[in-house]
Amino acid sequence: MNYKKININTALPANPKSRIMIVYTGGTFGMTRDANGVLVPFDFSHILAYLPTLKNLMLDITVIAFEHPIDSSNIEPEHWQTIGKIIFDNYDDQDGFVVLHGTDTMAFTSSALAFMLEGLAKPVIFTGAQLPISEPRSDARENLITALEIASANREGRPIVPEVCIYFDYELIRGCRARKVESMYFDAFHSENYPALAKAGVKIDYAFDAIANPTAKKLSLRSKFDTNIALLKLFPGIGAKAMESIMETDGLKAIILETYGAGNAPTAEWFLVILRKAIAKGILVLNISQCPGGMVTQGRYETSKTLADLGVISGADMTTEAAVTKLMLLLGELGPDQTRKWIGKSMAGELSEL
Ligand code: ASP
Question: What is the 3-state secondary structure (H, E, C) of the chain?
């Protein structure tokens, strides 16, 4: 994935408060209308024309942009690797990072980065917009300005938010707890199972107790993904054929089963036979609930005890976005045996360990 440094012509302030890198990947944020009224990516070097206040933030801003900005529906693990590398390579020179990304898959990318950046001690704040920056009512301006402020915020010389987060519509949430929940209104993201890390109003109110403690570890980058996984959402009436064909996918190493409620699934014999066969073949089966709030508790009902007895692993209160990216990264970095060991443990605050 190619990327380049962009000159946005902000004169360097005499005493910059912080050094912040913006990584521009694309999405609605940077769209403008062409002569025919069609939305196309804008040239990021013109950002000051849309957002002159950038000059007044007293920040030393460096911008790195994807050579070809993308709609985030086209995001692939290669893009995560590129974002991870940009952050890793520039980590020592910057106080924080703001990643501009399309909203559609932002929660996948923020989850992936949370797992990739082991030992992160600086802010990595994702944001974007529901309306392009070229539109008068756009949410892009507030989202970017506040994301920059959060990325540069420190207390007693230390970054306040040493985590991968999403800032959107006046709320800061942990990146690996986020879900896109809204495509029309501005409140696009929500974290059901973990409190917001900050709320922005007249001032930015940080929930200090919910924010991760900075680590003393040195940053390292994990970036191998194994995409031989599948995601199966259960529904009443699901057929054996469809389920079997997924389980028999060539090279399949793991499957996420999106179950009902507290992690419940049918107890029909055909269903259990298919699962038993898959598990006997060495396929890891991870139980994630379709329910955004609460957690998988295998054994609470008979309909989930059977899963536990078969060797299905509980995903606790992980989002599907966190489960997908964590599985691919663990499989790629550590292989199936270690993945089994670590998948149910918290790596970046993505699940609640009981
Ligand atoms: N399709 C766009 C994207 O995810 C939507 C957005 O940015 O809000 O890139």
Answer: CCEEEECCCCCCCCCCCEEEEEEEEECHHHEEECCCCCEEECCHHHHHHHCHHHHHHCEEEEEEEEEEEECHHHCCHHHHHHHHHHHHHHHHHCCEEEEECCCCCHHHHHHHHHHHEECCCCCEEEECCCCCCCCCCCCHHHHHHHHHHHHHCEECCEECCCCEEEEECCEEEEHHHCEECCCCCCCCEECCCCCCCEEECCCEEECCCCCCCCCCCCCEECCCCCCCEEEEECCCCCCHHHHHHHHCCCCCCEEEEEEECCCECCCCHHHHHHHHHHHHCCCEEEEEECCCCCCCCCCCCHHHHHHHHHCCEECCCCCHHHHHHHHHHHHHHHHHHHHHHHCCCCCCCCCCCC
Q: Which of 29, 31, 104 to mutate to test the pocket of ligand 1 (most atoms within 8 A of CB)?
A: 104
Does one domain contain both 25 and 92?
yes
Pick from 31, 32, 42, 71 the residue to mutate for probing ligand 1's pocket: most ligand atoms within 8 Å of its CB.
71
Determine which one of 10, 25, 28, 215 is catalytic: 28
Cα–ligand 1 centroid distance for 249 (angstroms): 30
Interval 120-148: pLDDT, tens: 999 999 999 999 998 999 999 999 999 99
Give the per-residue pLDDT at 46.
Answer: 86
Among 221, 239, 262, the domain boundary falls at: 221
pLDDT reading at 12 higher than 80: no
Tens digits of residue pLDDT in 44-92: 888 988 999 998 899 999 999 999 999 999 999 999 999 999 999 999 9
Total domain count, the chain? 2
**Does some domain include residue 348?**
no
Is the pTM higher than 0.85? The answer reads: yes
**CATH number of domain containing 129:** 3.40.50.1170
Residue 280's domain comprises 229-342
Task: Identify the residue whose C-alpha is closest to ligand 1 atom 3.
Answer: 102
**Residue closest by Cα to atom 1 of ligand 1:** 71
